Structures are given as C-alpha cells and as structure tokens.
Please model this.
Amino acid sequence: MKALIIGASGQIGGTLAALCVRRRIEVYGTSRKGQGFLYLDLADPVSIKDAFEKSTPDLVLLCSAMTHVDNCERDPELARKVNAAGPALVAEECRRAGSKLVYFSTEYVFDGTSGPYGEGDPVNPVSVYGRTKLEGERAALGLKGALAVRTTVVYSHNPASKNFIMQLISNHRSKAAMRVPSDQFSNPTYAADLAAAVLDLAEKDASGIYNVVGPDWLSRYDFALKACAAFGFDPAFLEPKLTAELGQAALRPLKAGLKTEKLARKLGRGLPPADDSLRKIAGIIKQYE
Ligand SMILES: NC(=O)c1ccc[n+]([C@@H]2O[C@H](COP(=O)([O-])OP(=O)(O)OC[C@H]3O[C@@H](n4cnc5c(N)ncnc54)[C@H](OP(=O)(O)O)[C@@H]3O)[C@@H](O)[C@H]2O)c1
Model:
C-alpha cells in the first residue's frame, strides 16, 4: 500500500509518517517547505495535482490545515482557501485516483455548550477555524468511502511542535508564567495513540465520522496539573484563567470534548489514558536532562 500524507511536516502528519514506516507502508509526505517532502500547498491546485501524480496513493491522510485558530479569525479568506477549498480539491483528486481519503477534523465544529459530543450531534462552530474545518470535513465526506476523524488537544514530545505539552515544558524550563484556561473542557489526545487508531480504522475501511480522542475529559488547567505531576514539575508557574480573560481573537468551545463509543465498537478498544502517555513523555524529558 502507498500512502500520501498531506502535511507530513506537522505534529500529526509526522507521527503518522513514522508509524507508516514501522508498518511497512510506502509513504510520501508533503510540506510547503523542507527537504524530503513533496511540495504541496492546499491553496495551489497545481501542486495538489503534482503530488498525486508523483505518489499515485492508495491512501491519502489529509493532515494539513491552517491550524492557528486566532490567525484564521484574522484572515478568514485564507482560512477558507486552505481549510475548505483545499480539502475539496484533494477529495476530487482522490476520486480521480481511486484513493481512500482520511480527513482530520476537530471538536471545534461544536459550540461547546453541551460536550462531550457524539458523532451525530448537531454541529455549530463558533469560529472561522471551526466553520472552515467543517466545510473541509463536508467536502471530504462527499467522496464515497471517506473517513473524517474528529480529534482535539493533540500532544506529543516533539521539539518542532508548539503543542500544549511542548509549551508547558518550554515555559517550565524558562521559568515563564503560563496562563492556562480553567474553563475549556476537552479530551487530550496523544499523537502516537491517535495515529495508531487512525491507521487501524483505515485498514478496516471505516468511513463516515469517527471521534478519536483520549478517554480523560478535563479542563486544560487540570490537564496541565496532571502533566506537571507526571513530569515532577512544580506547577507554581501555571496561572489558571477564564477564556474570556485571555483576549483571544476567536471564540473557543468551552464545554467541548468528544465521545468514543463508536471507535471502541469498531476497534474493540479505546485510546489509553493520558497518565500512560505523560509517563512516556516524562521518560523522554529525563533522558534529555
Ligand atoms: N493538534 C490538534 O490539537 C488538533 C485538534 C483537532 C484537529 N486537528 C487537525 O489535525 C490536523 C493536523 O494537526 P497538527 O497538530 O498536526 O497541525 P500542525 O502541527 O500545525 O501542522 C499543520 C500542517 O499543515 C501544513 N500546512 C499549513 N498550511 C498549509 C497549506 N496552505 N498547504 C499545505 N499544507 C499546509 C503544515 O505544513 P508546512 O507548513 O510544512 O507546509 C503542517 O504540516 C489539522 O487538520 C488540524 O485541523 C488538530
């Protein structure tokens, strides 16, 4: 099998690429920069076509997006181009090539008034990021057999990534205070566990929407405390704040998070608890100190 990972330079795409190699799946990765990648810009239709011609994929994992939620709010036109129009072009290329499409979606399709949410719950995004990702999800699902994976608060030990756990480690190291929302509830998701579940779903030819998130439903502040306990950090640098106090450009879904019964039925398992992955990350931190 040949896989094309669109956005292999990112946190989830990079984790998937490493797992594909371990599973002996031939893999091509894309980025707009950097060596060893096929060039692909979701805002540039010709580059999408070229990447498909060069890779002739059986499986396409669409991880690329404009992921900075506040930048999407500031530049909705670019966000729509990258997050909505881009996936529609990718779906069209998949249709032509006969490739299976896996699209990475988000809990931000919900307004966060009554989470955690099941796959069938009514959507109501409250930000440009959420609205454009939902448009992208719908474009992807317009392709027969496509799989849309909704996930959230993805973390890993990856020095190239600015994920929540890397920000926490960096602030702790530099002794900088870290303002953490105490009123955003969600399910932190370890990138390696997400990648394994997504490849398993693809291998089972799952289609439609699947929530793929960790089992812990907690506030961002409580997650930060959990991480500090696992890493042996004094949590004094954490400052709990209400989201409204953070002055962010985009609204956030507050009581969000996702339910995973459908995933458990399909795979016969859910994702492991955050304590397991935080323990693994604690081991990596110790190695480097
Ligand atoms: N991380 C989370 O907590 C989370 C939660 C829910 C959903 N998701 C979804 O999961 C996917 C992957 O997230 P991630 O955490 O891996 O994100 P990330 O680390 O921010 O990576 C984003 C990727 O998108 C690529 N990209 C950005 N703009 C692009 C463009 N115009 N054309 C082509 N590629 C572009 C980047 O590649 P280059 O800059 O190298 O081109 C990079 O590979 C996204 O679709 C995101 O919406 C993530």
Summary: The chain has a mean pLDDT of 97.
